[in-house]
Amino acid sequence: MKTNDKDFEITDTVEVAPEIGDDIGQNRFKLDSAKRNFRTRVFSTLVLLVLLLGFIGSGAAYNSLLKNGVPHAELASYFSIALTAGLTGLCVFEMNKTLGFKKWYYQLIIIVAAVFVYLYPVNKDLTNFSFYIHINMDKWLESWQMPIIITCYFLVLMVISIIEKSIDWKNTLINFGMTMLIVFALKGFSIVSLTLTSSSDQTARFSFNTILWIWVMIILSDSFQYIGGMRFGKTKLCPNISPKKTWEGALIGLSIAAIFGIVYVMIFRSVGILENFMPLKEVMIALRGKSVALEVIIYILLALIFPIIGLFGDLLFSWVKRRVNVKDYSNLIPGHGGALDRMDSILFSLFILFIFVWVTSFI
């Protein structure tokens, strides 16, 4: 492991080192190192937001172009799928490297397998978009296929850990669990962004705005947890997992994110011209048919819960790093670390979102 920051490649993990001037209980914005790090984080965040808008926008473009009958509208969905498959590979690459699966041929095998799991449909109703529409899933897709594929993926990891004696079997189990979380989170992203209704008008089933709603809540929560912790933090939240997180910062970030989330969905469900873009559109309209109060309550609960889910995801991914004694998954993004360092909260949130839409598809 390299120790000089200048020698790092973007794929290197960064070892844990003592922080200078990082005491909880003081205003850390007064420290020059904290100010420099904050400026770097802000610049990187602005760049990431631009990329994020393009990423989410591909799903919105697909739905809009298709609804308006634009020729070859499905190309937008192919673009979204290709981006998401690439992001899946990058995230799995960082997780592999962190947990000891570093050799290029191990990486290649595991990444190809992970992307295959991402692309393989879970059921017909949740993959009613793009090329999936044209491959006659009703004739061959069965519910037992995905568990078999996941089992094969697990066996591949186990075989690699047996061959490569340096890989701890516990790290193999962690790698399996975390990569499945990553894969199904990003599968959930594609399903929610792209899936169409079964009706002939081919409108968005869940609305791409669902992703935007959750992602902005996570960004606000993470950002204000950081700012609130830097300015007011005194009580450590999980010192053994994430030493810089404080209860004060967490409460500030979670509160701001939840307030935004509630106001956001209430605007979209209450303003007529925006109703087609309300988050989780099909699910919530079905709930409204049973009880308007139930719809509102579920929206409020989701706005309260998703920032907490994001915080838990942050701590989960941090726990993996602390277990192998690294600070960041890579140094790909200045001031933030790797893709997983930046996306830990949203990945866990998207994973829970996938479970939510998968379960509601049977109701």
TrEMBL record:
Keywords: Cell membrane, Lipid biosynthesis, Lipid metabolism, Membrane, Nucleotidyltransferase, Phospholipid biosynthesis, Phospholipid metabolism, Transferase, Transmembrane, Transmembrane helix. Pathway: Phospholipid metabolism; CDP-diacylglycerol biosynthesis; CDP-diacylglycerol from sn-glycerol 3-phosphate: step 3/3; Lipid metabolism. GO terms for biological process: CDP-diacylglycerol biosynthetic process. It catalyses: a 1,2-diacyl-sn-glycero-3-phosphate + CTP + H(+) = a CDP-1,2-diacyl-sn-glycerol + diphosphate. Its main location: membrane. The chain crosses the membrane at residues 42-63, 75-93, 105-123, 143-163, 175-196, 208-228, 249-272, 292-317, 345-362. It is found in: Cell membrane. It is a multi-pass membrane protein. It holds the Pfam family CTP_transf_1. It comes from the Bacteria. GO terms for molecular function: phosphatidate cytidylyltransferase activity. GO terms for cellular component: plasma membrane. Its EC number is 2.7.7.41. Belongs to the CDS family. This is Phosphatidate cytidylyltransferase. The lineage of its organism: Bacteria, Bacillati, Mycoplasmatota, Mollicutes, Entomoplasmatales.
